[in-house]
What we know:
The chain is an alpha/beta fold. It has helices spanning 3-15, 18-25, 29-43, 59-86, 105-116, 129-137, 200-211, 225-233, 280-298; strands at residues 48-51, 54-57, 92-97, 121-126, 143-146, 156-171, 182-183, 191-194, 217-221, 239-242, 254-257, 259-261, 265-273. The protein starts with a helix and ends with a helix.
Amino acid sequence: xxxxxxxxxxxxxxxxxxxxxxxxxxxxxxxxxxxxxxxxxxxxxxxxxxxxxxxxxxxxxxxxxxxxxxxxxxxxxxxxxxxxxxxxxxxxxxxxxxxxxxxxxxxxxxxxxxxxxxxxxxxxxxxxxxxxxxxxxxxxxxxxxxxxxxxxxxxxxxxxxxxxxxxxxxxxxxxxxxxxxxxxxxxxxxxxxxxxxxxxxxxxxxxxxxxxxxxxxxxxxxxxxxxxxxxxxxxxxxxxxxxxxxxxxxxxxxxxxxxxxxxxxxxxxxxxxxxxxxxxxxxxxxxxxxxxxxxxxxxx
Length: 300
């Protein structure tokens, strides 16, 4: 069994068309067909069946596809680690991050790191809370910034960099806009603007309101921070957002107010795979980030 056979197989399986796979791989259709035939002979099973002009995976082919992808990822990761070992100061670090940490945290720490390690590159990937965890587990990225840090995942190691408050964001015309702080229950009759269900900040907001004794009336949703802030600016409703998403600037026509009851916080940190070693350049960045935020905490 050869690596190229696995690559050809995966390409055809995902496209369900040999000629399209051949065109994408820039090789002859006959070469793909020949290698897949050899793969089927070696395995002793049919991986594909014809359906009209297209083909599709057989039941055993679907099972083999899962393992073929895993094998290719493992080999690619092994090559990547070897390259990193040979030249750790010229590697590329694959980092994931959620939208809530993209405005200030990510550019700040990466900029500081590049001052010390200018030859190490970055491949950055934005994603949801659950997708970033899966990407770390599946070796698609080396590590990820996340908030809150998961505490009960057997495949994820989490290191907390800091803990931050969740504040209320109100339109500047809101009756409570002059308050220095507020109880979350004070907003029980307000319309809420939140991330959609499935986003971790949606879950945090729902649980906070539940702890305050009410279920929020969600009238609008936004899939990114700017959308939510814009909707609050327009007077559509109120929202609950982490302190780090404001950084020194509160959106126009809004006011940010701390919540004193209940106390609403989230941890922010880095997640890494629990059952495999980081590549050398990833380790360098990981240690740098821990030290960087440790120093920041001392001055706050």
